[in-house]
């Protein structure tokens, strides 16, 4: 097991009592927009450029410190697949989960900031489309919302459990949202992440200012593909939300077998660098 390193936590209190907001960055170590934007917010609060009017803000810029230092997605396990409490925390990420879940339990509002391997516009997940979470998701700055993640893993997870931050927050009745700000290396993802935090602070009244709600294009997740061999490859350099038609060849397996689309739709999270045994890409349909 890797040597444990505790994430840094910053806490700020407003001038008045109010709700508590928790913001995570770098659940995955190869995602830099969360740490950048959260650290910028910390500097803005400490320098009084941002005044917290009410409530408490808990900021964790880097949830997976060792993976972040190495710019690895994870050290031993995907933290966003083992995010729950563990009696036997036999991996570095499970130990992190035991620490970080306590923060989620104690907050009122939770925001998790991510980026992705493929080129993409900003998107958010709505696992439970209740009025509160839909309202929250519409002010983040995303273009698309993804639905059907929990159902997909329950029905077709292919042995992969999805104990993720959103599922944990919703289990504990938190107002919550996850945003994918764009590609890891895209400088604009840092701007999106920072504005997402500002929008969240305004939306819930932690700071002064108004934010506009934005209608999102809704995508329903339908199918998950796991990378089974390091020689499996995508048939082209897919971008997130690239469209395909029924009958199109999407990828090729190591044995030469082609993966052919069974319906018209879009590709989600294509990751040519995926490790064997992990998520390779998803398919979904745009809600009309």
What is the molecular shape? globular
Question: In the CATH hierarchy, what is the superfamily of the largest domain?
Answer: Zn peptidases
Element order: H for helix, E for strand: EEHEHHEEHEHHEHEEEEEEE
What's the total number of strands?
A: 14
Structural class: alpha/beta
Mean pLDDT: 93
The domain count comes to 2
The quaternary organization reads as: single chain
Q: Please identify the top-level CATH class of the largest domain.
A: Alpha Beta
Give me the side-by-side strand order of the main sheet. Answer: 1-3-2-4-7-5-6-8-14-13-10
The amount of helix comes to: 25-40%
CATH architecture of the largest domain: 3-Layer(aba) Sandwich
Description of the molecule:
The protein is α/β, with parallel strands linked by helices. The chain has 2 domains: 10-203, Aminopeptidase; 218-286, OB fold (Dihydrolipoamide Acetyltransferase, E2P) (Beta Barrel), CATH 2.40.50. Helix content is 25%, strand content 27%. It has 7 helices and 14 strands. The chain has an 11-stranded mixed beta sheet with strand order 1-3-2-4-7-5-6-8-14-13-10, with helices on both faces. A hairpin with a 5-residue loop joins strand 11 (249-252) and strand 12 (258-260). Helix 1 (33-46) packs across helix 7. The longest helix has 17 residues, at 187-203. The termini are far apart. The mean pLDDT is 93.
Secondary structure: elements and pairs:
Elements: E1 10-13, E2 16-24, H1 33-46, E3 54-60, H2 65-70, H3 92-105, E4 109-116, E5 123-125, H4 131-137, E6 144-147, H5 149-156, H6 165-171, E7 175-183, H7 187-203, E8 217-226, E9 233-234, E10 243-244, E11 249-252, E12 258-260, E13 265-268, E14 279-286
Parallel strand pairs: 2-3, 2-4, 4-7, 5-6, 6-8
Antiparallel strand pairs: 1-3, 5-7, 8-14, 9-11, 10-13, 11-12, 13-14
Helix pairs in contact: 1-7
Organism: Candidatus Staskawiczbacteria bacterium RIFCSPLOWO2_01_FULL_37_25b
Keywords: Hydrolase, Metal-binding, Zinc
Cofactor: Zn(2+)
